[in-house]
Amino acid sequence: MNITCAHCSKTYRISDDLVHQICRIQLMCTACGSAIAIEPQILSEEALQAHPSGAALRQEVVENLKKLYPMPHILLKARTLLSGQKNFKELEHLLNTDPALAGRVLKIANSAYYGMSGKVSSIQMAATVLGTDTLLQIITLVGYSKMLGRTLEGYGLDSGELWKHSLAVAICARLIEETLQAKNGDDAFLAGLMHDAGKIILDTYIQDRQQLFSRYTHLTHASTTATEEKILEFTHADIGGELCRKWNLPETMATAIQYHHTPADSGGNRLAYVLNLADHMAKGLSTAVDEPPDHLKETLAYLPIPEIALKDLSRKAQDALESLEEDTY
User: Fold this and answer.
1) Membrane spanning segments where (predicted)?
2) Which residues neighbour 47 within 8 Å (Cβ) at sequence distance 6 or greater?
3) Do the beta carbons of residue 141 and residue 194 sit within 8 Å?
4) Residue 156 CA, distance from chain mean position
5) For residue 146, how far is the Cα from the chain centroid?
6) β-strands 11-13, 35-38 pairing
7) What are phi and psi of 240, to 5 degrees?
8) Helices assigned H by DSSP within 69-196
């Protein structure tokens, strides 16, 4: 690559390696002594073209979803048994085929979060006392905890880190719906658990492009989602929405997950706005969050929740997370 001194116009041939450094380099012109600054190239076309991206890669990922990431068997069967004519006896038999899972379901049912400490001794009792929707919510927690508890090296997430965040978002989403007096709190809870599931699927693709991701985020300070969009040309939210569709979950939920970072693009999907706010609230439970970003201001304008109610929601969410976290992971 050639560079030219801005003062005396002397041209120098430099190594391409200098351009690929991640920091600004300053050389001295031997002719006039002036400084020549070499700005790092963020991403070269050659580097981007070395890895598949765009529609072809997205299609490959989507085609592998159902084969590589089927809905947990127990959860799939439980959803079937609890829809229509509810068969609690068969559900109890199903869960008892996996004693460890059944034990975890009962442990969570007796947690402080559900207010039934020590009172629930069987699956049928859980269904009677807590209701089928709550029981399915508990089974969902157990079913997803292993999948969401993985270490994600590409994203730099330790074991259990994604699970804790997903649980926090689920709790916040449900509390938001309750505050709005909506009737789909259970859908919001499930959507909260699933909102970042696309990261599990994309993690190996991120690892394959780790240098590109690290370089881009370091030089631009871009968010994870913006970096995915730049390098893959789609995001974990897009793939999370596709996973919901493969699992035959409601389209409203799939759309909400797909647009949980950009709810204004969701076509008025209210759950997308709920997830957007819940995601922001959940991050605030573990670390201080600065002034709300512009997109969150749009969300707060869309969802009629007073600021004082948000503070109360955060307190309730923190209490709920503390009571559930240990029992679910």
Assistant:
1) none
2) 212
3) no
4) 13
5) 15
6) unpaired
7) -60, -40
8) 73-81, 88-96, 99-109, 123-130, 132-148, 161-179, 185-194
Architecture of the domain spanning 45-71+149-328: Orthogonal Bundle (1.10)
C-alpha angle 192-194-195 in degrees, rounded to nearest 5: 65
pLDDT at 286 over 60: no
For residue 288, the model assigns a pLDDT of 47
Distance CA 196, CA 238 (A): 10
Structure tokens at 13: 């041939």
Return the number of other C-beta atoms located less than 10 Å from residue 24's C-beta. Answer: 9
Average pLDDT over residues 102-123: 86
What are 298-302's contacts with CB under 8 Å, separation 24+?
Answer: 298/263, 298/264, 299/263, 299/273, 302/263, 302/270, 302/273
**DSSP track, 176-235:** HHHHTT-S-HHHHHHHHHHTTHHHHHHHHHHHHTHHHHHHHHHHH---HHHHHHHHTSS-
Q: Where are the domains of the chain?
A: 2-38, 45-71+149-328
Query: Contact, 198 vs 238, CB < 8 A?
Result: yes
Instruction: Please tell me the distance from the alpha carbon of residue 255 to that of residue 251, in angstroms, as a whole number.
Output: 6
Please state, in angstroms and rounded to a whole number, the distance separating the CA atoms of residues 108 and 327. Answer: 6
Model pLDDT for residues 253-275, shown as the tens digit of each residue? 999 999 999 999 999 999 999 99
Is there a contact between 120 and 129 (Cβ–Cβ < 8 Å)?
Answer: yes
Question: What are 78's two structure tokens?
Answer: 């439980």
**How far apart, in whole angstroms, are the C-alpha atoms of residue 229 and residue 242?**
16
Model confidence at 1: pLDDT above 70? no
Tell me how far apart the alpha carbons of residues 260 and 265 are, in angstroms, rounded to a whole number: 9
Buried b (16+ CB within 10 A) or exposed e, 200-236: bbbbebbeebeebbebbeeeeebebeebbbbbbebbb
Q: Please determine, for residue 6, whether its predicted confidence score (pLDDT) is greater than 50.
A: yes
Residue where the block lists tokens 């309750």: 178
Contact 21, 37 (CB under 8 A): no
